[in-house]
Amino acid sequence: MNRLINDIQQHSFKIQSEDDLQRIVDAIGERKVVLLGEASHGTSEFYTYRAEITKRLIEQKGFSIIAVEGDWPSCFEVNRYIKGYDQTYQNAREALGQFNRWPTWMWANEEVLQLTEWLKQYNQKHEKQVGFYGIDVYSLWESMEEIINYLEKIKSPDVETAKNAFACFEPHNRKPENYGVAASFLSEDCVNEVIELLQKVRTNFIHHQSEEATLNLQVNALVAANAEQYYRAMVQDDTASWNVRDYHMADTVDELFHYHGDDQKIIIWEHNTHIGDARATDMKGEGLVNVGQIMRERFGQEQVYAIGFGTHRGSVVAAIRWGEPLEVMTVPIAERNSWEDLMHEAGAFNKAILFTEDNKHLFTKPVGHRAIGVVYHPEYEHLGNYVPSVMSERYDAFIHIDETKALVPLKVGVEMT
């Protein structure tokens, strides 16, 4: 591993201030899709570094779409706030209060609050508006409610179709696992209802409307259709449900381009496991795809730039079980000979590597690369938190923060222990 450490030392550069991130922005060039990862959903520096890169891409490169690993309805409320569509929210804290589904801390946190206020101020000063959108698949019931409310508001004849679809899901008490079991094993699914709804929305609402109403309606319908498929697959096949989810996120990106124009540029914030090309990891052998792979396939590798993030040690916000109160946990020192360990051994400071045609061949040896989820058990991370990865194929660049700290939640609808 000494050779790899030497190669890291030769081809990395220190990050001592935000200005050092400019080298990465310059390397992005004129690409239209930039993917910004994170090794956890609860690390402050991952959010703040991504925010700084995002600001520079907006100001210097003309990016105008931010798509994140979050629910469409909640993120769209933030979008409405930063674009001034209404005066419902007096500040970013109130807008972020709409993230009320666990894990709320992913987007309802102080780090995102600061970026939200910056976006609000930017949009007030510029004619070209920047949007903030959620591309995840989980918000089935919320998206159905959004569809019904809007169709009732405009007195659409399709409202009954939407209500029929909603009624099909209602017996499951908003519990995805209940629907998944009923659909998979009892043949009690809602496939026909959501497909009919999606088709009618696509057919009857083809014109742009004020405040992105058409986009909002169409993506909520897409969420309903794909969430049904996701929850049905969830109880039978983890591979199938993962792929449904990532194809949905990629399809939502396509919807954003279709609505705003193919000449736009988009920034995608997601976990490393979604934005780092799956073909460069052991995910490929399991039949898994991800957003990073799909973006490269759809837009061409020369139009896509993926940046991974990692840390050697620190603290993180996570929970011991799904739905449990969040905790500030210790992130242990990286496992020996993992990517994070090698980055640390190359110098105990923050740094970045740009993988280029000149140096890619030096980083093709598969190494373990740490991934932390919203559910985390630090004491057992050596059993499954390291993903074998060819780093120079998985990412176009990598940012290493040697010691990180937990982000600061806004405590919206959650308890801390």
UniProtKB/TrEMBL annotation:
Pfam families xref list: Erythro_esteras
Coiled coil regions in record: none
InterPro entries: Emycin_Estase, Hydrolase/PRTase-associated, UCP036794_erythomycin
Matches recorded under CDD domains: Ere-like (cd14728)
PANTHER family to which the protein is assigned, alphabetical: ESTERASE, PUTATIVE (AFU_ORTHOLOGUE AFUA_1G05850)-RELATED
Name of the featured protein: Erythromycin esterase family protein
